[in-house]
Amino acid sequence: MKNLSLSLLIIGLTFVSCKKEEAQKPEETTTKEEVTTETKPDSATVAKAWADYATPSKAHEMLAKDSGTWDAELTFWSPDNPQEMKSTATVTYKMIMGGRYQEGTYSGDMFGMPFEGKGTVAFDNATQEFVSTWIDNMGTGMMVTRGKYDEATKTSTFHGEMVDPVTKKAKKVKEVITYIDDNNQKMEMFDVAEDGKEFKSMQVVSKRKM
């Protein structure tokens, strides 16, 4: 008799539990549907987002101010050699693709060999940051850095990685561009160690030519 009563009690509890679950399911479904409806943007919102993403901004206007030809003095430092090495180059900046990107073309002489390099700078309207790429004939890789402009110090600071051809490992780099005035700039490149220590490996001082 006790076994029968216990069995009936278990069946009753199971039935009540099932009823509660069934009662909760419609509420859960409604909640999910409401969340989906709220988070899904309409076509007008999507169109505006893409239009804003594609429209050059004040940051692009700042990049366009560099358009023209500049004379550059390059200085290099190595941790293994205290003596600095110098070189010169000419760089021409221009805006491409409807003013959306800055393209810089470098040419000169480096370590007794002809040197050519090309950089692009974008301002991503979605992330609100600058993105820079760099390639040259001294290697086969590409350096990509990202950063922001600080109006108070008139500097843009970029962070990224590049592969060390000796160790074959990626190393962190930092690039700081100081806008001295409309006709003078300074770019400093730093190697960043794992412990955060920085070593200044390169400096480029540029003066507008035309």
From TrEMBL:
Residues 21-42 are annotated as: Disordered. Residues 21-41 have a biased composition (Basic and acidic residues). It comes from the Bacteria. InterPro entries: DUF1579 (IPR011473). Pfam families: DUF1579. This is DUF1579 domain-containing protein. It comes from Flavobacterium lacisediminis.
